[in-house]
Amino acid sequence: MNLSLLVLLPVCTFLVLLLLQARFARQVALTGAVLQLLVCGYLLWQYLAVRDLGNTAPMLFETDQVWYAPLQIHYHTGVDGIAVAMILLTALIVLTGILVSWTIDKWQKEFFLLLLLLSAGAYGFFISLDLFTMFFFLEVAVIPKFLLIGIWGSGRKEYSAMKLALMLMAGSALVFVGLLGLYFGAGSFDMMTIAKTTLSQTSQSYIFIFLFSGFGIFAAMFPFHTWVPDGHASAPTAASMFLAGISMKLGGYGCLRVAVFLLPQAAHQYAWAIILLAAIAIIYGAFATMMQTDLKYINAYSSVSHCGFVLLGIGMLTETSVNGAVLQMISHGLMTALFFAAIGMIYSRTHTRMVASLGGLLKAMPFISTVFVIAGLCSLGLPGLSGFVAEMTVFMGAWQNPDTWYRVATVLACASIVVTAVYILRAAGKTIMGPLPENYAGLPDATWNEKTAAVLLVAAIVLMGVAPFLVTQLVHPGVENMMRQVDKLVTLN
Amino acid sequence: MLTDTFLLFRQEIMLALLLFFLVLYKLGRARPAAHLLPIMNWLLLLNLVVGLLFYDWQGVLFNGMYRTGELIVLEKNILNLAVWLISMQAYGWLRQHRHAAEVYLLLLTSLLGMFLMLSSGHMLILYVGLEMATIPLAAAVNFALSSKRSSEAAMKMIVSSAFASALLLLGISFLYGITGSLWLAEIPGMLHATPVVLFTFLLVFSGFAFKVSAVPFHLWTADVYEGAPVAVTAYLSVVSKAAMVFVLVTLLYSVFAPLEKTSHAVLVVLSLLTIITGNLFALRQQNIKRFLAFSSIAQIGFILVGISGYSQTANASVIFFLLVYVFSNLAAFGVVGWISTQTGKETIADYANLYRHNKTLSWILAIAVFSLAGVPPTAGFFGKFFLLTAGASKGDYLFISVAALNMVVSFYYYLRIIKAIFMEPGETGIAALSLPFWPQLSLWICTGGMLASGLLGVIYQYIYSISPSH
Amino acid sequence: MNGYAYLIWIPLLPLLGFVLMGLFGRTLRNASGMIGTLLLAGSTLLSFVAAYQYFFSDGKVNDVYRKITAFTITWLQFSPGVSIDMSLVIDPVSAMMLVVVCFVSLMVHVFSLGYMKGETRFATYYAYLSLFTFSMLGLVLAGNLFQVYIFWELVGVSSFLLIGFYYDRPSAVAASKKAFIVTRFADLGFLVGILVMAFYGQSLDIATLIGNLAAPQSAAYLSMTTAGFMGISALTWGLLLIFIGGAGKSAMFPLHIWLPDAMEGPTPVSALIHAATMVVAGVYLVARLFPVFSLDVSVMQVVTWTGIVSALLAALIACTQTDIKRVLAYSTMSQIGYMMFALGISGSGGEDGLGFMASMFHLFTHAFFKSLLFLCAGVIIHFVHSNDMRDMGGLRKLLPVTHVCFLVACLAISGIPPFAGFFSKEEILLAAYHANKPVYFIALFTAVLTAFYMFRLYFSVFWHKEPGHSPTHGEGALSMKLPLIVLLLCTVLAGFIPIASWVTVDGKTLATHMNPGFSVAPVVLSTLAILLAMRWYKKTSDTPDAAASALGPAFQTVSKKFYIDEAYLFVTRKIVFPFIGRPAAWIDRHIVDGAVNGIAGITGKLSQSVRAWQSGKVQSYALYFFSGIALLAIVFIYLWK
Amino acid sequence: MNTVPLSHILFLSTALFFIGMYGLFTRRNMITMLMAIELMLNSVNINFVAFNKYLYPGKLDGLFFALFIITIAAAEAAVAIAIIINLYRTHRSIDVDDATDMKY
To answer: Are strands C228-229 and C232-233 parallel, antiparallel or unpaired?
Structure first.
């Protein structure tokens, strides 16, 4: 199938929406999102079908068109299992994001336009095999976030929006310099070509710093994570979902696909630093979460902690751990999206997100509360939900790296599951359980759109948690290919 | 033979004809400006179209004093396009102006000077073109006749540029003394990197650095931009700057080619200085024109980064960026100018909640700002990417990193505008403004250009194919 | 297949119940109780069939009970050889547990029909119960270490949900959080232990793991004993960490603090989860991994001493508590301590395996009489509307059935023949006597204490004073009485079941020989303790208070549960929060984020400080212009060539 | 004939240039500043003529250049004076320090 369809579809929806009257905005957006999901489903089906036929090429559905011949810039797309999984995640979150924003009252049309633009960026990023195209889409996804937070956000929204935009832009500036290094080192922007060239150790180690820290900012790597709490907390629900669900995954995916895959020796050289930062992020993020009093801050800091697992998995550089990192990306995407959706639903009814002033919501809104609890349980790694599968794979993989200090880091990371339990249960205990304040007594429960969104996400989480083999089947060949490449190049030298 | 001559010369001839027309028009019965403006817009479109035809003519005239080629024609066309766009945008301002024809006369004379400069094969023509491009502009800056700021700006401009041309001339005179030739084609063969030559180079270079407002020769820029009428500011920041960059590239790449080592180093230093200074000053500006002045200084810094690449890619990237810059900056100035002439509001704070009543204007301004900042999918992203790629080809990554990180600073102030438009709770915001046909057309062209010129790879490819290989 | 394919339905039926009631609870409402009970009855039936088939028909090959894997799929592949498989394994231990879990759970389901009647969240309650039963059955049948962990966590969460069932009571919320977090902390050990075992043992499948490690010269064993960290071998680390997990779930000292608080949940839940099934998961885990545990003497020592210390401490504390459920909770902890140390002192085969067998036997009998005790307590609380035994008294006439049941269960737990507890406890004491004398004496003392506090409870509730209550309602519906009676029968009869011939460490029948002489001491001592309790508590008297005040600070310490809760609170409130949590949040706000904002601030300052360049004076512009050229000239002509 | 060496003439022109520059930097009256600029341009003219005469007597480039400079300087002066007059109208002063409204 033609992968460009994935980008064209949101763009077309965008155009239709642009030309239509504002009062049809949400219907159009929803239709577009449903179509996106269908196309993604078709992509999955096609992908599996082709793989079943025994096609073991690293990338499928490749198209390669010259875009800027003088600079060897191509529009080169292709997907492997990892990308397909990410694309599915994106489609799901876009759809649920639109559903959750159904009743947004200010500038509805613009809101959905930006959301669609954002999704186009994310799709493009995941299908790109050309570094320029990839970078292009990476940046496409930044500005809509700024607008979404700044216009529809709450609290210190302008400050947060600015901080987020600037930090992400700083990230992409670093990525950009790294890309130029790759380009002049290997003479091409094409990932598959660069993968075949071995750069010298010195240039690898320089380029890697730029690329990894650049993508690291997107992936909320400590100490570049501070955009996460403010940004998430101020963003409107759908934007929070998108930020945590997809945006941060752009970073993780980039770290993996660009930094590690193309610069394997440097990855081995810097593994200690990645692991150190990841372990700090995990533990420190978890402890910082424990002290938060605002539900969104809680989830945002916990995202820092959870994204640490992604980096930990990548840093350990074993096949299992990288597999785990990918799983964690997917799982975290689904889970935080659900969490933010639930928080948004609560906030839109009670107009507060402060843990201390909430309580007993299970009585007033059982559905939303149940969703909240499921998200929380997923976050603390309950088996049967996706978080468990991902975290355990990361741990197992991490442990396979026999270095003692790496194992200490792994144990520390494992320890975060306790802290996670503490903060999740504190939050859930205070908001969902306990006596219900009187002024919340008559609040309505979820509406149809919110229910649909929540059910979709919960279903995905449960599916992944109950039948992880489905996801690993999809993801694992991609990881295997990648790690084969990494190990091969490393053993060469 | 004769037709050949005329065809090679056709863009200049068209401009001269336009100037004649304006003089004659002035001689005739006095009519309101509203009568002249549509005519001028059509004529300038005609001018652009004539320039676009017969694009592949090249050759030399007047013993090599004048030369032209595909690249030069393209550069002139870019300038023509920009002038046409500005003319349409000036509609709001000139409609009420008693001396609309004179404004056109001045601007078109200046354009003619730029054409001469671009086509010059000899230092004399270069100098004459330069002065022809500058002096009328100083007068045009003064065209808000009763405004204190306007006359102050004009004074600053004429004094500064006279000083700059004095230094430039000193440089040219030394060049003459050293080489004995003023032919651009002959000079490079006789240059060697001796101290005197380097000093001469610095004098000439600074003369042009002044025109493109590179730091530390930029100080006039902001004051003049702020004081001048918006259309003139737009002209200064787009047309004049683009023309000067074209000439600077030619000078550096051909005339001073033997001094590449030094000139590269100078470019690296100046570009970083320019970017940083432009950014630092832009951060604090409240007046939007002054803000755009400093931001355009920062943009020039990026252009210098691109020039420092010394390659075909660099050449093409600079020209491509300037094309994009024409669209982006003119879109910004178009909106700013329209708001300024209609409401007199010129500070960023005035733009608070602009989106509430002026959706189209807001989006266009937003896209323009994004393009200036270099955000995809606008063309500005491609422009900046290529410039930095060109600059990086020398392998100096520290330099590129500093430049790239400065982009982040520039994001801050560009996003301030966006913040004002969309996020700040202005009491009511600026009331809904209606946009007449001409400015609207111009803005849509700019928007189209910003969106299309990046995504369509062919444009860059064409520019690349006609750029001289280095 | 191997004839056990139906095993999969045993956990699936409750899961089905959970899904049904979770999704359609609101429509099903009161019918959900019946549905849950019926589904579970199906499971129970199947489990009896399975146990019968296993023990009497095809489990035994050459006189040895073998492990039978009924079903397996690869659930999550980590690396070649290491994967989480979902498998169902039946062996003597799991067959026995299967029966216990299904049966007790069924009783509790039935009992709850009456006990929870009228509750608004009736369907939710049954959904949670079903979820718990599913998880517990999964845990019991798991053949993969990681699978154990999965169900382990699920059990934990269903326990959390059930403890917090009355979610609008802050104390219930706090208790559920505490239970979950403390066990989570222990699970961390389990998890890391699994990582260690999986890495060195090359497998997560329990049978394979045991196979890989059991032979002392195997590669896995060698690598595991040679690799080490901080001077302790990987094997010891792995087992110790796994044991921490088990100790947490089984409320062993010092991780027991959650169990008494967990009594905030509905009483039938306490009967099921916190008495009969979930809390013995730790014992079960050690039993499943027993061949590996027995490889490491030091870990076995840890198991033994943790068990015996917990048994003793809990018994001491139980003597001082006044909340009826808390007394039962501490007694549970004490009994599990028994099972645990019995495992710890057990050898790995033949006669030495007596401890193992005794532990399993005690697990089996304890499930019946402890759940009976809890259900009785449920009836009492239902009747009195209080948990405090000081509010009770003289209930024997008002609750006749309960009274008999409670009495029998008390006798059983005190080890008075011929009730079930006597048999299993005797075996344990016997094993201890042979293996470790100090442990034996402590165990004996604990047994006496047990008799004392159980009868203290019994007399306080049923005698002591005249009832202060007018009987508003009777003992409750048949659904509440029936389980009591059934469990009563089990309590009486379970001791006669020849566990020794079925559940042994090596699968071979263990010949047990009742030694009446040996039994005299414990039985007599326990009887004396009962008499003492009768003297003190049958009538209102001052003696207990006098005794308490005579003991002074010692009594105070015990009744404050040795201040262990306070110690934990100190660590969390005074150390973790202020010294780790708050600094982390502070650093994030002020240093990490401060750096980001600082960069922005510095840029702004810089911007402010350079503004003087743009002075507005055209002459100074020209001067800058010229100095610019001059500087460039100096730099590029003279300094840098 | 006892010719003046080129270096003397260059010294003269350089001196003139810097005198002009000094005048530009220090005088407050705009007309005087304009005159100072004329001085600088004239020093350049001297350069051109001198180089032409001494170094390249066979060519005329330098002479022509000087002529063009003179012409253009006149044009420049005309525009400048027009601007100064307008400045006087708006500011009531031709002191350069009075025209510093726009800064920073």
So the answer is: antiparallel
Residue-wise pLDDT for C332-366, tens only, equals 888 888 888 888 888 776 677 788 888 888 888 88
Residue A475, class by beta-carbon neighbours within 10 Å (0-12 exposed, 13-18 middle, 19+ buried)?
buried
Taking CA–CA distances from B422, the nearest residue in chain A reads: A151
Q: How many helices (H) and strands (E) does chain B have?
A: 20, 2
> In chain B, what residues touch A135 (CB-CB under 8 Å)?
385
Domain boundaries, chain B: 2-466
Question: Taking CB atoms and an 8 Å limit, are C626 and D21 in contact across chains?
Answer: yes
Strands B59-61 and B66-68, by their bridges, are antiparallel
Please count the helices (runs of H) and the strands (runs of E) in chain C: 27, 6
**pTM score, two decimals?**
0.91
Q: Is B342 on the interface with C (CB under 8 A)?
A: no
List the domain range (segments joined by +) for residue C641. 613-641
Whether B71 has a pLDDT exceeding 50, the answer reads: yes
> Residue C292 to residues C32, C218, C226: CA-CA distances in angstroms?
43, 13, 16
Whether C425 and C571 map to the same domain: the answer is no
- b vs e for A308-331, b when ≥16 Cβ sit within 10 Å of the residue's Cβ? bbbbbbbbbbbbbbbbbbbbbbbb
Q: Any chain A CB within 8 A of the CB of C75? A: yes
What is the number of structural domains in chain C? 3
**For residue C77, what is the nearest residue in chain A, using CA coordinates?**
A469
pLDDT over 70 at B295, yes or no: yes
Tokens of A256: 């993996």
Q: Which residue has the tokens 């039993």?
A: C287
The minimal CB distance from D56 to the residues B127, B158, B180 is found for: B180
Reading the block at residue A16, the tokens are 């239709």
* Whether B25 contacts chain A with CB within 8 A: no
Cβ-nearest to D24 among C612, C617, C619: C619
**Could you tell me which residues come within 8 angstroms of residue C219 by beta carbon, excluding any fewer than 6 positions away?**
none
Cβ–Cβ below 8 Å for B419 and A151 = no
- Nearest chain D residue to C622 by CA distance is D25
| Residues on chain A touching B422 (C-beta within 8 angstroms) | 147, 150-151
CB atoms within 10 A of CB C6: 14
The residue in chain B having the minimum alpha-carbon distance to the alpha carbon of residue D57 is B180
What whole-number distance in Å separates Cα of residue B208 and Cα of residue C90? 89
CA A48 to chain centre: 23
CA–CA separation, B8 and B23 (whole Å): 25
Taking an 8 Å cut-off on Cβ atoms, the answer to whether C632 and B266 are in contact is yes
Chain A contact present for C61, CB below 8 A: no
Rounded to whole angstroms, how far apart are CA atoms A377 and A379? Answer: 5
How far is B173 from C479, CA to CA, in rounded Å?
114
CB contact D92 to B (< 8 Å): no
| Chains touching chain D, criterion 3+ CB pairs below 8 Å | B, C
Give the C-alpha separation, B51 to B10, whole Å: 7
Give per-residue pLDDT as tens, D72-89: 999 999 999 999 999 999
User: Average model confidence (pLDDT) for chain C?
Assistant: 83
Report, as an integer, the average pLDDT of C181-202: 87
Look up residue C32 and give its two tokens. Answer: 């959900």
CA dihedral A168, B335, B463, B8 (to 10 degrees): -170
CATH of D6-92, one of 1.10.1510.10, 3.10.20.90, 1.10.287.3510, 3.40.50.620: 1.10.287.3510
D44 shares contact with chain C (CB less than 8 Å): no
% of chain B residues with pLDDT over 70: 98
Q: Does B406 touch chain C (CB under 8 A)?
A: no
Per CB-CB distance under 8 Å, the chain A contacts of C187 are 417
Distance from CA of B276 to the nearest CA of A (A): 16
